[in-house]
Design a protein that fits this description.
Blueprint (H helix, E strand, L loop, with lengths): L1 H14 L2 H17 L4 H17 L8 E2 L5 E20 L2 E8 L3 E10 L2 E7 L1 H4 L6 E8 L3 E10 L3 E6 L5 E3 L4 E13 L7 H5 L4 E2 L3 E18 L3 E19 L5 E21 L2 E2 L9 E13 L2 E16 L3 E17 L1
Antiparallel strand pairs: 1-11, 2-3, 2-4, 2-18, 3-8, 4-5, 6-7, 7-10, 8-9, 10-12, 12-13, 13-14, 14-15, 14-16, 16-17, 17-18
Helix pairs in contact: 1-2
């Protein structure tokens, strides 16, 4: 490039008059100065920095490696659901109820470049007007630290209520609205050999089996309204801390099976519940817990990978002798990806 510019400059100087030669000289010098800062060179420098940061890390490459390619294209099918159970005693009579939200399914496509992702998701039922709920799932999985943020605003719970001495009552849709927020985070001690991302985001590859003890923190908030014979309103806030264990099993090359459990004991709980004008106590009863379970199966062959993953949240509050509440939230994901 330098030789070509020099030749152009020499030929121009021989042909053009003095003023024109000066203008061309300035132009060529400016081109020489701007050329290293061209879009292509800037992109190359950014790519080099991103690649270096993407490849480096405090990991044991015998157990964990990064994919050799820079681009990943992934398609996913997500299915999620929620259930709320209550059980207790009222005037020495036992009662129990169960409410289940409609399943939510989405299709998504994502592109990842050296750890930076862009995703788009569609809910076919919502586009056709058959699903009115709103749900937001955000997660970040790292080898050392990771978290899940799950928010659901559901209006389509259906279920039943049993009260001792009475016939079962079927509970139709649109009488219960629930807003629920689930948070959970983990810290992995053996992050050099055990990789959560290998199972859930496929940004790492687990080469050999490894496990890790995990520290965990969880939070759960819920606001529910029931418009039935008597109006009911529930407000609940919980925070818990605990520990668990995760294991990545590699039975043979190209396979990965993951399972982990993160039980946390609730250390802070604030609940208010009202039926009509009556306040119903929801007393703390040990052990109250928030449990997060995860599982995954990943198959990789060449630059193609596919599999299933699952995240399950369970929260237990109260005492069955007065009133207890069980909340369940789950998500199953099927995925197919190609590395380029």
């Amino acid at each position: 490039m330098e030789q070509e510019l020099s030749d152009i400059f020499r030929k121009t100087v021989l042909v053009l008059p003095h003023k024109s030669r000066l203008a061309v000289t300035v132009l060529v010098v400016m081109n020489c100065l701007v050329l290293p800062l061209s879009a292509q060179n800037i992109f190359q420098r950014m790519d080099s920095v991103l690649t270096e940061n993407y490849r480096k890390g405090n990991i044991d490459t015998t157990y964990i490696t990064r994919p050799k390619t820079k681009w990943t294209i992934k398609a996913r099918f997500n299915l999620s659901g929620a259930k709320i159970e209550s059980e207790g005693m009222e005037n020495d009579h036992h009662f129990k109820s169960e409410m289940t939200a409609d399943y939510k399914s989405t299709l998504s496509v994502g592109i990842n470049y050296l750890g930076f992702s862009l995703n788009m998701a569609l809910n076919p039922a919502k586009l056709m007007g058959k699903y009115r709920d709103y749900e937001l799932n955000i997660n970040s999985y790292g080898n050392r630290f990771g978290w899940d943020f799950i928010y659901q605003d559901a209006h389509n719970f259906t279920g039943w209520h049993d009260h001792e001495g009475m016939e079962r009552i079927e509970l139709p849709a649109d009488i219960l609205t629930v807003k629920t927020l689930n948070l959970n985070a983990y810290y992995a001690f053996n992050s050099r050999r055990f990789s959560y991302p290998a199972a859930f985001s496929q940004s790492y590859i687990q080469q050999h089996s490894a496990g890790s003890f995990l520290l965990a923190a969880s939070g759960m908030g819920q606001h529910a309204k029931l418009d039935w014979e008597q109006k009911m309103e529930l407000k609940m806030t919980n925070f818990g801390f605990g520990a668990g264990y995760g294991y990545n099993y590699v039975p043979s090359q190209g396979w990965l099976l993951h399972i982990s459990a993160l039980p946390t004991f609730i250390v802070y709980s604030h609940t208010s519940m009202n039926f009509g004008d009556t306040r119903v106590p929801l007393h703390y009863h040990f052990p109250e817990v928030i449990i997060t379970g995860r599982g995954a199966i990943v198959r990789q062959t060449g630059n193609i990978f596919y599999g299933l993953s699952m995240v399950y949240n369970f929260t237990n509050n109260g005492n069955v002798e007065s009133l207890s509440m069980h909340n369940q939230k789950w998500r199953i994901r099927a995925f197919f990806g190609l590395r380029l």
